[in-house]
C-alpha cells in the first residue's frame, strides 16, 4: 500500500523527509566498465563498436551495416499504419510550433557610455540523440528530442538506437524520418555514446548528446561531458497531483497509474485538501490496477513509492509540491491557471481537470523530456536553448575605452595582472 | 617560439589539427581521492570540513569559524582603497545592467486548437560560488559569478574561498560585499563542493554550484552533478585575434600577452591576412615580454601554445576561428561589426581596434566566465539562464482534449502504455 501522510500529524516532517529522500534507483557501479568501453571506441573506432555490439546486443554488424540504409527507414515508414503516421505528424507539428516560440533574438545596442553590447545565438552544429532499445524505445521521445534541435537550426542530427538480436522498432524509424533525423545507427550502450563523442571511421563526432538511457549510457554521458555537451541524466519518472473536492477520483487514479506503469521505480503522489478524495482515489487505483496490462509494473510502483498526502489548504499543497520539485505537476483544480504563480519548482504544469499528463507526453506541444529526481530545483525541461549557445559581444570606441580604462586598469593591478592593464593603457598612449 | 602556420602550405591541415587537439592541461587523476573526500563530508559534515582544511590548507578552524563574520567582511571592505571600491562598484553596475536584458519573459497563450500553452521562469533558490585561493583568487570573478545570480533573483548566494595558512584576499571579500553575497566560508577544494552539495551542520546545501577551481574542485563538481546543478568545467583560458593590415602590432602583442600571463597553459593565437603584421606582432611580443612581471608564465605559454596563422582572406580566418571555437575572439579589423555573422562558435567577440579583451574581463558588462577548450561549440558563457529554469505549461478544455485525444491514444497504444491512453479516454467517457 502507498503511504498516507497528513501535514497535521505530529510525525509528518519525518515521514515527508523520508519520502523526499527515498532513493528509487538502484545505483549500479559501472563507471570503470564504461571508461574501458569508451577507451576502446576512441582507440579502435568501428572495430570496437562491432565487437561491443556482438557482445552486448548479440548482433553481428559490419562497418557498412552500422547505419540504417535509407531504404530500410523508408520501408519502416511504409509499414507503419497510416493512423499512427498521422498521429506522429500531428504531434511533431504541435511540438515544433510550441518550440519555435523559444527562439531568442540576437541583439546589439549602444549604452549610455557609448559601449556597443550585444548577444548572438547560434545553433550547435551536430547533435547525437540516444534512443534506448527494449521497453523504453519510444517513438514519441524521438520527436521530443529532435524537434527542439531542428527548431534551433542544428545542421546534423545523428541517432543511436540499439537493436538487440536485430530486433528493430519500426515506429521509432518512422518517427525519425518524420522528424528529419539525418543518420540512424544500430548501436547502443556506452559504445554508442563513445562513437558520438569521439567519432569513428564511419560516424562523425557530434558536439552535444541528448536522450535517456540505462546505467551504462548515463555513466558514459557523464564521462564524455566536457568533450561534448550533454543533457541532464534522466532518472525514474514522477507525477504529483494537487487536487481538491472538485476533482474526479477515477480520472486522478488513471493519471497516477499512467505514471506508475512506466517502471517499478516511477512515483505517483496525490496531494489533496479533501480526505474523501484521498479515500476515493486510493480505492479507484486498486480497482483500475486490476484491469491494467502493466499491473506488474504499476502495482509495485504504487505500493512502494506512491503516496497520498492530506493537507489543510492549497498553500500547504504548493509548499509540499515545491519541496518535491516534481517532474510533472497536475493541478486538478477549478480555475487552475490562477495557481501558476504558486509553483516555484516543477518540470511541467498540467492545468485543470481536462489535462492528463499523457496529453503532454504525446501531443500537447510541450516537451516530455523533463527534469527528474527533484532536479527541477535547478534544471529545465528540454527546449531550444539546449541546442543553441550565446556569444556575447563587446565593442569600445576610443572615447568609451578612455572612459572605462581607469577602472579596468585599477582592477587589473589589484589582481596583479600587469599585461591586462597594459593591453588597455597601450591604446591610450598612457 | 610559437608556431607559424600558413593555410596555403601543404602541411597546414596536419599542423592545424595538432594545434586544435593539443592537450594543454595535464590531467591529474584525482577522482578516487575526491570521491573519498565527498563521502566524508556527506557523512561527517563540519568535522570533515575542519579535518580537510587542517590537512590541505594548514588552517585550524572551529564550526563557528567556518564562516567569515560580518565584521571581518566589513573590515576588509574598509581596508580596500577607495579607488578600487569605486572600480568594483562601477564594474558591478555595468555587469548587472547588461545581464538584466537577459531575463526572459513568461508567456501564456491559447493556440488555434484551444490549447493553453506557456512557460514560466523561476530562479534557482540557492547558489554556491567557488572562488579559488592563491594565484587565481580574482575579485572580478566574484562579481561575474554573482551578478547573473542576483539578476536572476536567486535568494541565497553562498561563497566558498579557501584561505591557505589563514591568508585572506581582502579584495575578494570586498567584492563579495558589493555583490551582496549572503554567506562566505573559508573552505576550499573538493570538501567545499561537498559542503555546498550535501550541506553540513553549519552550511545549508545549495541547488547549483558555479565557479572555477583546480583539478580537485573540477572532479568534485563532476561527481556531485545530478545532486545539484553545475556550470561548465573551466579549462585554461585562450584568445584568438583576427587582424588585417589595419591593426596595430603593438596593441595585438599586448592582448596576446594579457592572455598568456594567466597561466603557462593559456593560449594566444593570431590569425591574419597580413604577413607583415604577423612578423611585426611576433617581434613586438618578444619586446614586450621582456618588460613583463609575469614573463615566467607568459613566456612559456606563448612559446608552447602560441600560434601565428597566415590566411589568404578573412573568410579563411573566420573558418579557422570557428573550428577553434575560441573562448575570446578579438576582431582587430576596421568596421568589425559587419563580421559578427561570420562567427559561429566563440565565447565572446571583442569588436575593433579599441576593445582589448581586458575590458571585457573587468568592466565592459559582458561576463568573463566563458566556455574554454573549444566548448563554445555547444556551450555559452555564464548568464542569467544559468540561474533560472523553465516550467512548461499545458492546459486543455473538454473540447481541445477531445480534438487531441485520438492521436494521443494512438501513440500511447503504439508504445504499449495502456494506462496512458486510459487517462485520456476516461475523461471522454470513451
UniProtKB/TrEMBL annotation, chains A, B:
Cross-referenced Pfam families: Histidinol_dh
Binding site for substrate: 237, 259, 262, 328, 361, 415, 420
Top class in the EC scheme: oxidoreductase
Cofactor: record remark: Binds 1 zinc ion per subunit.
Active-site positions on this chain: 327 (proton acceptor), 328 (proton acceptor)
UniProt-listed InterPro entries: Ald_DH/histidinol_DH, Histidinol_DH_CS, Histidinol_DH_monofunct, Hstdl_DH
Gene Ontology CC terms, in alphabetical order: cytosol
Any one GO biological process: L-histidine biosynthetic process
Keywords for the protein's UniProt record, in alphabetical order: Amino-acid biosynthesis, Histidine biosynthesis, Metal-binding, NAD, Oxidoreductase, Zinc
Chemical reaction(s) catalysed: L-histidinol + 2 NAD(+) + H2O = L-histidine + 2 NADH + 3 H(+)
Cofactor(s) the protein requires to work: Zn(2+)
Origin: domain of life: Bacteria
Pathway stated in the Swiss-Prot or TrEMBL entry: Amino-acid biosynthesis; L-histidine biosynthesis; L-histidine from 5-phospho-alpha-D-ribose 1-diphosphate: step 9/9
Binding locations of Zn(2+): 259, 262, 361, 420
EC number: 1.1.1.23
Transmembrane helix as UniProt keyword: no
PROSITE patterns referenced in this protein's UniProt entry, alphabetically: HISOL_DEHYDROGENASE
Described function: Catalyzes the sequential NAD-dependent oxidations of L-histidinol to L-histidinaldehyde and then to L-histidine.
HAMAP family: HisD
Protein name, as recorded: Histidinol dehydrogenase
Source organism: Maritalea mobilis
Phylogenetic placement of the source organism: Bacteria, Pseudomonadati, Pseudomonadota, Alphaproteobacteria, Hyphomicrobiales
Amino acid at each position: 500500500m502507498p503511504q498516507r501522510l497528513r501535514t497535521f500529524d505530529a510525525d509528518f516532517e519525518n515521514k515527508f523527509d523520508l519520502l523526499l529522500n527515498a532513493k528509487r534507483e538502484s545505483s549500479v557501479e559501472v563507471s570503470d566498465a564504461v571508461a574501458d568501453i569508451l577507451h576502446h571506441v576512441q582507440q579502435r573506432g568501428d572495430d570496437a563498436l562491432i565487437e561491443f555490439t556482438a557482445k552486448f546486443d548479440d548482433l553481428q554488424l559490419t562497418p557498412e551495416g552500422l547505419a540504417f540504409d535509407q531504404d530500410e527507414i523508408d520501408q519502416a515508414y511504409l509499414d507503419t499504419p497510416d493512423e499512427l503516421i498521422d498521429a506522429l505528424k500531428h504531434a511533431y507539428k504541435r511540438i515544433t510550433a510550441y518550440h519555435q516560440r523559444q527562439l531568442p533574438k540576437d541583439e546589439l545596442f549602444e549604452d549610455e557610455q557609448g559601449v556597443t553590447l550585444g548577444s548572438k545565438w547560434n545553433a550547435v552544429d551536430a547533435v547525437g540523440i540516444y534512443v534506448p532499445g527494449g521497453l523504453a524505445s519510444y517513438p514519441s521521445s524521438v520527436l521530443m528530442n529532435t524537434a527542439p534541435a531542428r527548431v534551433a537550426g542544428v545542421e546534423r542530427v545523428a541517432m543511436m538506437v540499439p537493436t538487440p538480436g536485430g530486433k528493430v522498432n519500426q515506429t521509432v524509424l518512422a518517427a525519425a524520418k518524420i522528424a528529419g533525423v539525418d543518420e540512424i545507427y544500430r548501436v547502443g550502450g556506452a559504445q554508442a555514446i563513445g562513437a558520438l563523442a569521439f567519432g569513428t571511421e564511419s560516424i562523425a563526432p557530434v558536439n552535444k548528446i541528448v536522450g535517456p538511457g540505462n546505467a551504462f549510457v548515463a555513466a558514459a554521458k557523464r564521462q564524455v561531458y566536457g568533450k561534448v555537451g550533454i543533457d541532464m541524466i534522466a532518472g525514474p519518472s514522477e507525477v504529483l497531483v494537487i487536487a481538491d473536492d472538485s476533482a474526479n477520483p477515477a480520472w486522478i487514479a488513471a493519471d497516477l497509474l499512467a505514471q506508475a506503469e512506466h517502471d517499478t521505480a516511477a512515483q505517483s503522489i496525490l496531494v489533496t485538501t479533501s480526505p474523501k478524495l484521498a479515500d476515493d482515489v486510493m480505492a479507484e487505483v486498486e480497482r483500475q490496477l486490476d484491469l491494467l496490462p502493466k499491473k506488474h509494473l504499476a502495482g509495485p510502483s504504487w505500493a512502494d513509492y506512491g503516496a497520498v498526502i492530506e493537507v489543510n489548504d492549497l498553500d500547504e499543497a504548493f509548499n509540499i509540491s515545491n519541496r518535491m520539485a516534481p517532474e510533472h505537476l497536475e493541478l486538478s483544480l477549478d480555475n487552475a491557471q490562477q495557481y501558476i504563480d504558486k509553483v516555484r519548482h516543477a518540470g511541467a504544469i498540467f492545468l485543470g481537470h481536462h489535462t492528463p499528463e499523457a496529453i503532454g507526453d504525446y501531443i500537447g506541444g510541450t516537451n516530455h523530456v523533463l527534469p527528474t529526481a527533484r532536479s527541477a530545483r535547478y534544471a529545465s525541461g528540454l527546449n531550444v536553448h539546449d541546442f543553441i549557445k550565446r556569444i556575447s559581444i563587446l565593442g569600445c570606441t576610443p572615447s568609451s575605452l578612455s572612459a572605462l580604462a581607469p577602472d579596468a586598469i585599477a582592477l587589473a593591478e589589484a589582481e596583479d595582472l600587469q599585461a591586462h592593464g597594459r593591453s588597455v593603457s597601450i591604446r591610450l598612449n598612457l
